[in-house]
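From the shared-data thread, chain only:
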Amino acid sequence: MAQDSPSRLEVEDPHLVFVTHGARTSSAHWRASGARHSYPWTSGRVCFLNAGYELSSVTVPTCRKVVVQFDTWTTTQLLGDEGYSVANRLRDHFVTTDPQIGRIIRAIYSEVADDCPSGRLYGESLSLALLSYLLATYSRNNPEAPAGRVSPSERRFRRVLDHIRDNLDQDLSLKCLSDMVGMTPPHLVATFKARFGTSPHQYITQERIRKGRKLLAGRRHSVAEIAFLLGFSSQSHFTAIFRKMMGVTPAKYRRCI
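Structure, as tokens:
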């Protein structure tokens, strides 16, 4: 069974469609700018339609898919540059099978489906990773993403680290951290990783687990209270991350020390 949309449709914001489950014999068809397009609609297929792309006679097979919309306000906030237009940088249209896009979108979908337990910064990091990859790989002329405006001093970066350690219980954001050093979020992530060998999200997670170990050793708080003090969405989320990094659950770690 296919879904047909015979009327003309102009895409208002860039859209990315990722097929999670598609039939081996399914195909999607549409007409745009006088040309007819037909592609197999199998699992792992990626279809990008840019803003202003005009569609007609659309036939898409019924399948499971994830649709990502790049609205102007959100992408501006992520990239930290009001004059930067994603729509102007990316191709009008492409269809491909790209495992890297698939990995990022599956991670985004999993996080959203679980009600975003890892917090805002993790979601922003995934979104930024997807945007940066698309801009680097599928741009019109492969222009670089906007560069950061300032090379921060050691003191300003130290302020970021202090802010992270003092606010582990908060839902930290890339925008907040990048504003502290006068950088765009993409430049902050790249510079942070070059300087500290890890991403901001991974660093925050490491700091939360480091502090969690101290709190567990102190035995003044329950595991549930520690999860709250460290900014985890739930005790189960804290337990899962702790076990992943330490090899044991928080309760077992406390019994062994």
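The chain has eleven helices and nine strands.
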